[in-house]
Amino acid sequence: MTGIAPGFIVLLGSGETLLSSVKIHEYVARRLPEKPRIVILETPAGFEPNSDLVAGKIKDFLTSRLQNYQPSIEVLPARNRGTPFSPDNPKIVAPILKADEILLGPGSPTYGVRQLKESLAFQMIIARQRLGGVLFLSSSAPLSFGTYTLPVYEIYKVGQDLHWVDGLDFFGAFGLSMSFVTHWNNNDGGEELDTSCCYIGQARFDQLRERLPADHTIVGIDEHTAIILDFVEGCCQVSGNDSVTLLRAGEMQVYQSGDRFPLDTLGAWHIPEGDVDLPAPVWEAALQADAERRAEKQTMPEPPPEVLRLTKTRETARSNQEWSKADDLRAQVAALGWQIADTPRGSQLFPLEDE
Question: What is the pTM of this model?
Answer without folding.
Answer: 0.85
